[in-house]
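Students often ask why we bother encoding 3D structure as a string. The short answer is that it lets us treat folding as translation between two languages. Here is a chain of 151 residues written in the first language.
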Amino acid sequence: MLETPEEHVCLDARRHGVVLARPLLRALVVGALGAVGMLGGWPVSAAGVALIAVAAFSAVGAVVRWDRTHVVLTTEKLFVVHGVLRRSAAAVRLARIGSVEVEQSLPGRLFGYGTIVAGDLEIRCVAEPRKVVGLVEKLSRRPLPEHTFAR
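And here it is in the second language, the structure alphabet:
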């Protein structure tokens, strides 16, 4: 994702672990239903085993998606990279960012996560969003090297 030799990665972080709460809770409920189904005898026990397998695959899938999603801040841009088999990224150049906003709900303030809005880019569930925004603002205010100016 680095375009110039002068561009350096300043931050490479995963989103906050809170993004795993809903999918893992859902997998837990489906797994519990599967466990109850296994106690019900032959026809229901086969469905119970299938539910436990679905719960396990969905939990693993959620963790892999979380692990493969990164918030990256370089000296020139802020972007989020996501995807397992097919990687994609959404980015905004620091030079084009007007204001950077942090949105935090009460649970977000309690657990240390929030949404960062920088230009057209909105990144949900960023861990320690105020620190990230401070770094973005610091990097966006730095003077540009001379070779970046048009002649």
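Translate back mentally: Strands lie at 9-14, 70-74, 77-82, 88-93, 100-103, 113-118, 121-127. Keep this in mind for the problem set.
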